[in-house]
Amino acid sequence: MPDDFADDIRRHNEMIEALAKVWMRQGELNEDQRLINDRLTTAIERIEVTLARVETLLTRLPRGETNGRDA
After folding, report:
1. Beta-carbon neighbour count of residue 41 at 10 Å?
2. Calpha distance 48→67 (Å, rounded)
């Protein structure tokens, strides 16, 4: 009986250690995901600024109907 109890305790400790490793790895993955999200957010913000500038420039273009010929 004492050997069974010692075996149970050993298996329990192994499971706790394995779970601790999984928990630590998940924390690393979460941090990686946060960094990726931050970079994507920055990229999207820059794209939105560029789009706004392009739209502004397009409103300033002349709208003549010259078919590509000088008037």
Report:
1. 10
2. 32
Which CA distances in Å does 42 have to 10, 20, 33, 53?
49, 33, 14, 17
CA distance 47 to 50: 5
DSSP character at residue 62 = -
Q: Which residue intervals of the chain are DSSP H helices?
A: 2-60
Nearest-angstrom CA–CA distance, 4 and 11 = 10
pTM: 0.62
- Where along the chain do its domains lie? 23-58
Q: What is the pLDDT of residues 4-54, one digit of tens each?
A: 999 999 999 999 999 999 999 999 999 999 999 999 999 999 999 999 999
